[in-house]
Amino acid sequence: MIKVHLKIQRYNPEKDSKPYFKDYAVECEPTDRVLDALLAIKGTLDGSLTLRKSCGHGVCGSDGMRINGRNMLACKVLIKNVSQPIVVEPLKGFKIVKDLVVDMKQFFEKYVAVKPYLINQETSPEKERLQSQKQQERFEDTTKCILCACCTTACPSFWSDPNYAGPASIVQAHRFIFDSRDQGGEERLNLLNQKEGVWRCRTIFNCVEACPRDINITKAIGEIKKDLLFKKI
Amino acid sequence: MIKIHQFEAIVVGGGGAGLYAALALSQAKVQTAVLSKLYPTRSHTGAAQGGIGAALANKEEDRPEWHMFDTVKGSDYLADQDAVEILCKEAVTTVYELEHLGLPFNRTQDGRIDQRRFGGHTKEFGKGPVQRACFAADRTGHMILQTLYQQCIKNEVKFFDEFHVVDLIIEEQICRGVIAYSIETGELHIFHAKAVLFATGGSGRMFKITSNAHALTGDGMAIALRNKIPLEDMEFFQFHPTGIYKMGILLTEACRGEGGILRNKNGERFMERYAPNIKDLAPRDIVSRCIYLEVRDGRGIDGKDYVHLDLTHLGKEVIEKKLPDITDFVRTYMGLDPVKDLIPIQPTAHYSMGGIPTNVNAEVVWDEKNSVLKGFYAAGECACVSVHGGNRLGTNSLVDILVFGRRAGLSMAEYCKKTEFSPLPSNPQTKIQAQIEQFKSKSNGEKISTLRQELQETMMDLVGVFRTEAGLKKAQEKVRELKKRFQNISLSDKSQVFNSELLDALELGNLITLSLVTIASALAREESRGAHYREDYPKRNDQNWLKHTLATLSEIGVELKYKNVVIKNFQPQERKY
Q1: Pairing of strands A64-67, A86-89
Q2: CB atoms A44 and B102 under 8 Å
Q3: N or C end of chain A: smaller count of CB under 10 Å?
């Protein structure tokens, strides 16, 4: 066990006029997750520390936050791999609800706006539709998205323009546009061809760096841009 | 003023079972709302990895009848065979439907859904392993959850995200709705409904080492118990053999389905000794026990309580293509590379076979005669149909949530169409409101985390893979003590907005309740069957114990009754692999 020092941004809307930082020190194993350290603080030092969490191993997307200035899932980074004091802040660009919890409503509204579901009017066959391995691999990368918002809230274009669709919703659109079974590609491309669509992306690659699922987001956005240019929609 | 909402159907829980039910309800034009204490895409269905079993026969000959036999044998003959028949037959149509809804399955060379081997799944009634698990890499659950959520969005299902359900409203044996706590505002809401579905998931957080998400605190099961509804077969809790050492994070059985091997400290493939026919692909209850036995006999690695999972012979391509997520977990959490390193694993608390008793239409049944409680439904891990009996086969949880989630939606739709709203009683929230106030008003009491840790350690040590009368009695005494101490906990967060500490308290209360029921059910069952292994009664005893436990909770404690198992084609026989 080692002593771990953290500096956590706190904010309780019922008491505080603005966010502030507070220092903590807890005993943890170096191989513990940052999430474990936060929960140790909540369990032993201050039960009011508020954060979202669920799966604890990087697949549910609940605990996206800024750790030492970078967006990460607190459950997917080990204490031994970050420098101390570990500075923990909520994701940037969303309204803070309390401490590390941000308001996700707008994020999910943008998700819904790109029609994130298979569109196919044909009658389904009795068994499965056929899809080649190559066709499946074409969009596999973007199926991995867990909607944690780490990419969108790491994007300078989103910080300067909150109306920008943002990388996460473009990833969702990509997942369907390049699925051979889908027929709604054109609708989605039209949506993304607007001012607040893919053209807001300045290929800064922050999203790629932030993605805990290692999705090549900038490449996905680029593929949509290319489709728009060459299909001339 | 308390807010009152009215929907024909309320679905509690946004995992696979809840979302499939909501989809079926919305397609039937029933006014539906889904209440989830998380955002639905955070649900634990998303953590399921290896596959969903269905006899599509895309890779080799396979039949639903073989799947049925495997499921019944895997259950140690405690599963109800009428339900198993539905499970295995509808698995096939359900997988096709998922594909039609857009699920990105891995494909075979000829473009069909790819399939692989999994524990306990065999051909020709046990002759050898069969490729039955349909999969999307090792994130099959993630893809199921995403696909169903997408379809619910398409069908404009109404979601109440981060609404934590705290009670059922039942009067005169008719369910009339639920009471929920809005996490963001701290307000109670009443949801008046004709039909309520609990699809609230499992309770793995009662154990110290678990693959389960923090959210899996058995809320729905505990609420049912408090409303005098029994829980069925709670003594059967599955430990998955391959959890990451100390952390419990799941490494899918597909690791062994793809050819992975378990090795003890001598490098020996020890499963050959215990299950000579299907070796490492024996069902989970058996493999978990074998790991404990190896450790007990001094063949754990470095004299510790773990063994190795060996994938090194599979090659980089199979590992990175077919098992990419678990490769990432091993690299991230252990700093090891499955391509060249052996992976330290230990059994991890994984799945509750027991739950709220239902019939095959997901209607909750409350007694030994299977009498239906009107308007109340359950599906998924929180329910007990029972298709898993004493031990669930890998992939069958995904089959269960989908087949019975969908059936729940369909039967609720039918019920809603022929039923009027039953009136709400006045102030049904009084009791829960008082409890919340009590939590908030106490100070200088005990900490939630202290009690939770003691509970999890007790359950892990004494109510885990191996059990004895003495151990269970000790656990019972300890959990009773924790129940008393729970009355004296205090919160440091007194606020209204996003009071997650209050949720922790409610969840801990649920875990304590469920632990008591689990222990009492396990203490009474003086035999070994499936995941319930009593060292003092090491044999299965069909004469006395081929029956389901029904446990209810009253002021005096846990009361146990029993009901018959439905046996059709498959007569109980010795379980050998």
Answers
A1: antiparallel
A2: no
A3: N
Question: In terms of DSSP bridges, do strands A2-10 and A20-28 run parallel, antiparallel, or are they unpaired?
Answer: antiparallel
Q: Does domain B242-348 have CATH number 3.40.50.1820?
A: no
pLDDT digits over A127-185, tens only? 999 999 999 999 999 999 999 999 999 999 999 999 999 999 999 999 999 999 999 99
Residue pointed to by tokens 């490492």: B280
Best probe of the B interface among A54, A138, A148, A176, by most B CBs < 10 A, is A54
The pTM for the full model equals 0.97
Cβ atoms of B83 and B383 within 8 Å: the answer is no
Residue B371's CB: how many other CB atoms inside 10 A? 12
Last residue of a domain, one of A78, A102, A126: A102
* A90 lies in the same domain as A110: no
The candidate with the shortest Cα–Cα distance to A65, out of A78, A81, A51, is A51
List the strands of the sheet with B307-310, edge to edge: B237-244, B343-352, B307-310, B261-263
Domain boundary assignment for chain B: 242-348, 430-564
CA distance A103 to chain B (A): 9
Judged by CB atoms closer than 8 Å, whether chains meet at B213 and A56 is answered as: yes
Q: At CB < 8 A and 24+ separation, what contacts does A141-144 make?
A: A141/A215, A141/A216, A141/A220, A142/A171, A142/A172, A142/A174, A142/A175, A142/A178, A142/A215, A142/A220, A143/A175, A143/B104, A143/B136, A143/B143, A143/B146, A144/A213, A144/A214, A144/A215, A144/B139, A144/B142
**Which strands, in side-by-side order, build the sheet including B115-123?**
B52-53, B128-134, B115-123
Kindly give the interhelix angle for B500-524 and B219-226, rounded to the nearest 10 degrees: 70
